[in-house]
Design goal:
The chain folds into three domains: 113 residues, Rossmann fold, CATH 3.40.50; 66 residues, ATP-grasp fold, A domain (Dna Ligase, domain 1), CATH 3.30.1490; 95 residues, D-amino Acid Aminotransferase, Chain A, domain 1. The chain has eight helices and 19 strands. Helix 1 packs across helix 8. The protein is an alpha+beta fold. It has a five-stranded antiparallel β-sheet with strand order 15-14-13-16-17, sandwiched between helices. A four-stranded parallel β-sheet has the order 2-1-6-7, with helices on one face.
């Protein structure tokens, strides 16, 4: 019987949906939030004279033999956190760094199927410049793009595209401080924004030529399957530049029949990043071109399933259980190839 380890935080509805499917399939599973480590849980790795002898997780007095895990799902884990007994800020930072390095090693070291992939692969695939480069190599069209801290380069890019551009953050769209939170969406700068262009020298920005939209697409790749949903963002001025500003209005989402060639390139893009899951964003232009924007290795999908009925949770459960049906030769670096 397969044993699935789910790394996530409390209240994760995506994990709950897949666990429901695992229960239906009579699979064993363990849910663990890495944020419990090291304050409320312990990790151990042992070596003998000739190498590794075992890895274990201890939580609430119970041991889990990590070497007996068949697959691990890095869904939405919290980072390791220091015990409240540690009051010194420097010591707290040390615990975060040491604990983070050790736990990341533990999950990546397991000889099992990893979804979306090993953490090192997730980090690499999250780099937007790498995404654009690989997408282009695989034959997916991408928007003309400039990533810069040079205001003059930005202004030249603006001029070349007649001001029809968007800007978005290089890495993290969400920030929080002192109880306040901020989200940076993709935005269409105006001529008034050009007055502040000199501030670009302080922080990298991604700017791209604006791509006309018929609809936007979220393509969720699970193993060798691609689930495409079209998002009719252009029905609202509020969401024209970034569909995430919209709500789940009925009729906003619909199943999209993705051309085989595009679907195959999406699956290959995920595979080339040593992943077996990824959420890809596209624009479908009025003249029928599919333009790749980015991939999120841990992208959400549950609301798309609710809106369209696509069996994405079943596909994730099937992927997590597929390790039991595969020989060791079919596992490469813990990911399906």
């Amino acid at each position: 019987m397969s044993h699935v380890l789910v790394l996530t935080q409390p209240g994760d509805m995506h994990a709950d949906a897949v666990i429901e499917r695992l229960i239906q399939r009579r699979a064993r599973y363990t849910v663990f939030d890495p944020g419990e480590f090291p304050a409320d849980a312990a990790l151990s790795v042992s070596y003998g004279r000739w190498g590794l002898t075992g890895r274990r997780l201890l939580r609430s007095g119970e041991h889990l033999d990590l070497d007996a895990v068949d697959s691990i799902w890095c869904r939405r884990p919290n980072l390791p956190a220091p015990s409240h007994e540690i009051g010194d800020p420097i010591a707290q930072e040390c615990v975060r760094d040491e604990g983070g390095m050790f736990s990341a090693y533990m999950w990546d070291s397991l000889d099992c199927l990893a979804v979306p992939g090993k953490m090192r692969a997730i980090r690499y695939a999250s780099r937007k410049p790498e995404q654009l480069s690989l997408a282009g190599v695989l034959g997916l069209e991408i928007p003309p793009t400039l990533i810069t801290t040079d205001p003059s380069e930005f202004l030249d890019f603006w001029d070349r595209h007649g001001g029809q551009i968007i800007t978005k953050p290089f890495n993290n769209p969400s920030l929080g401080e002192g109880g306040r939170s901020f989200v940076r969406f993709s935005e269409v700068p105006t001529t008034l924004d050009l007055a502040a262009a000199d501030a670009i020298r302080f922080c990298p920005v991604i700017t791209q030529a604006y791509v006309p939209k018929l609809v936007e697409l979220r393509v969720t790749v699970v193993g060798d399957r691609a689930f495409a949903v079209e998002i009719n963002s252009q029905r609202s001025n509020h969401a024209r530049s970034d569909w995430r500003k919209y709500d789940s209005t009925p009729g906003l989402y619909a199943i999209h029949s993705l051309p085989d060639e595009i679907a195959e390139r999406c699956i290959r893009l995920v595979s080339e990043f040593d992943l077996n899951y990824g959420a890809l964003d596209f624009v479908l232009t009025p003249d029928g071109r599919y333009v790749f924007l980015e991939i999120n290795p841990g992208g959400q999908w549950l609301w798309l399933e609710a809106a369209t009925g696509l069996p994405i949770a079943d596909a994730v459960a099937d992927l997590l259980l597929s390790a039991r049906d595969r020989s060791p030769e079919s596992l490469t670096n813990g990911t399906l190839r």
